[in-house]
Amino acid sequence: MMIRNMKDVMRVGIIGGGLMGREAASAFARWFVLERFPVRVELVAVCDLQDTLLDWFRQIPTVRLLTKDHRELLASPDVDVVYVAVPHHLHESIYLEVLAAGKDLLAEKPFGIDLAAARRIRDAAVASGRFVRCSSEFPFLPGAQRVVDIARSGKLGRLLEVHSCFWHASDLDPSKPVNWKRQVRYCGEIGVMGDLGMHVVHIPLRLGWNPVRVYSQLQKVYTERPDGKGGFAACDTWDNAQLHCDLEVSGSTVPMRLEMKRLAPGATNTWWVEVLGTEGGARYSTAEPKTLWIFERQKEQRWVRIDLGFQTPFPTITGGIFEPGFPDCFLQMWAAYAAERSGALEGRFGCVTPDEAVRSHELFAAGLESHQTRAAIAV
Ligand SMILES: NC(=O)c1ccc[n+]([C@@H]2O[C@H](COP(=O)([O-])OP(=O)(O)OC[C@H]3O[C@@H](n4cnc5c(N)ncnc54)[C@H](O)[C@@H]3O)[C@@H](O)[C@H]2O)c1
């Protein structure tokens, strides 16, 4: 039997072992689902400040270093790639340290707490020559990939409009305790745009749909929440953001609506995208993970419903008729990172680039300005 050599192994260290750090560990643990994939992954080191979380990672046999000091992790010669999943106010300092340590980086969104931080991280990434990408997983779902393929096929005719949305609902419960994502000093002034925005811009930006103008509607509804200690704490981030953008496509101005909502009645974690043209269109939502809607204008106009299977960008051993979910697209995103880092992406959809992350921040900064001035802002 052939044993792969060390060149094929991507050795990962995680800084921030909370919700997403553990999600990454679980993706690595299921890496064997990928078929004929050129890179193996090994989680070798984890850093978090909480003992209970470090204890959780003890169940992973490949983890050789557990530490509360990220500098110790960065000093380890065993680590090739660092995944950083910490609150937004720590992004810039830790990302820059990862690059200074000579490691590759999969950054979490929003890639810095604000536009200035994102630009500094992007510039450091370029100067370092390290492989740096940012997390955004939903485009790796089969339905999302089909929408991308249709948008690129030239079969849409003239582009009419684009919608890209990410809706949450649990904040509608006023008794939900506050957390760092609801506080400007940790989450950033852009609030929900920083939290959910990368998910809605990844596909449009990759398709070349760069907003030239934006008019925003931002809403703050709950201004305090239980602090979990019997009192209340200020909750000062934007809850909902709607960005009404203009695109310039083939000499025409095309509207694109981006919605990022923590207060979207009934929507648990609903990410959806729709592109409409004069000749065709497509719509996909995680609310119906197996369903792709395609618009066709022939003799009659019709929306056709397609029952999707498990046709992920990177083939897996999972049965082709099974339905995909969040852990699957997150693993596929990591596969895209590993493949692109090894020069094996082969034209497939890739993770968010540092330039795209900066562009997302330019849009969100313009969104803040638009809300303040009640005017459309050039991006
Ligand atoms: N891609 C996605 O779908 C997705 C989903 C949720 C969150 N995120 C992003 O992931 C990042 C983390 O979010 P989360 O939901 O996992 O948060 P979380 O609060 O669950 O986890 C953050 C962890 O970072 C640890 N931490 C804080 N300071 C640290 C330090 N100095 N050194 C080491 N560890 C430290 C905390 O102890 C905590 O365990 C954020 O950037 C967030 O926007 C992405």
Descriptive terms for the model:
379 residues; alpha/beta; binds nicotinamide-adenine-dinucleotide; globular
Short description:
It is built from ten helices and 17 strands.
Shape, per Cα inertia axes = globular
Bound molecules: nicotinamide-adenine-dinucleotide
Q: Measured on Cα atoms, how large is the radius of gyration?
A: 21 Å
Q: Which regions are unreliable across 5 or more consecutive residues at pLDDT < 50?
A: 1-6
Protein structure class? alpha/beta
Widest sheet: strand order? 16-15-14-13-7-12-11-8-17
Helical proportion, percent range: 25-40%
Report the strand count: 17
Q: What value does the average pLDDT take?
A: 96
List SSEs in N-to-C order: EHEHEHEHEHEHEHHEEEEEEEEEHHE
Number of helices: 10
| Major sheet details | 9 strands, mixed
Which percent range describes the beta-strand content? 25-35%
**N-end to C-end Cα span:** 55 Å
Tell me what the structure shows.
With 379 residues, this protein is an alpha/beta fold. The chain contains ten helices and 17 strands. It has helices at residues 19-29, 51-57, 70-74, 91-100, 115-128, 142-152, 184-187, 192-206, 326-341, 354-373; strands at 9-15, 40-47, 65-67, 81-84, 104-107, 132-134, 159-167, 213-219, 224-226, 232-234, 240-249, 252-261, 270-277, 280-285, 291-297, 301-307, 377-378. The protein has a nine-stranded mixed beta sheet with strand order 16-15-14-13-7-12-11-8-17. The chain has a six-stranded parallel beta sheet with strand order 3-2-1-4-5-6, sandwiched between helices. Helix 4 (91-100) packs parallel to helix 5 (115-128), helix 5 (115-128) packs antiparallel against helix 10 and helix 8 crosses helix 10. The radius of gyration is 21 Å and the shape is globular. The chain starts with 8 loop residues before the first strand and ends with a strand. Residues 1-6 have low confidence and may be disordered. It binds nicotinamide-adenine-dinucleotide (NAD).
